[in-house]
Amino acid sequence: MLFRSVSQSRYGFSQIIYSGFKGIGDPFVIKGLVGDAMIVDGKNNPVYVSNGVATEVSWPPNYIADNASLLNESPNANGANPTALKVDVDYPSFGVLYEGRYYLAGDQLQPKRLYASKLFSGTEFGKNDTLNRDIPFWVDVVTNSKITGLANLNDKFMIIFCENEIHYLSGAFPPASIVTGK
To answer: Is the model's pLDDT at 120 over the cut of 50?
Structure first.
């Protein structure tokens, strides 16, 4: 449920922009480009906030298999709908903005998975267009342990922290390349 409510006090004002959380998670805010952010908590659908307006992101993403051919650049990428693979998907609990895409992770049921949005979109994680190579995607990182954190290093690399190792992702085109750090 989305609504706006403003209350005034002598110290300023507060404004409720979203009240649709179904459970209580640990909020994680991913700072966006200009006036926007993504909020994830591991218990609810992601919420994208832009210029004071909150939009609930449909979760899990529903990809179309036709885009699998666009993801052939990496053997670890998949264009199919994760839920159609008969694999349960949970909610993301952290993420990062890298190369104009929101990357979400921390899915307790798929702990090695990264979900990437369309370029410059906080709401499109599953809407694919077979004529457009700017597609959202997901990739399972080849790792021995679950992903525990993500960081953007000057928009040159995305650092992928795992329990037992560190990886980095480089490049902007999906799904880029993931390299195991030594």
So the answer is: yes
Cα 101 off chain centre by = 8
First to last CA, the chain: 46
0.90 exceeded by the pTM?
A: no
> Nearest 5°: phi and psi at 153?
-105, 90
C-alpha–C-alpha distance, residues 153 and 167, integer Å:
12
65-97 tens-digit pLDDT? 554 555 444 444 444 455 555 567 899 999 999
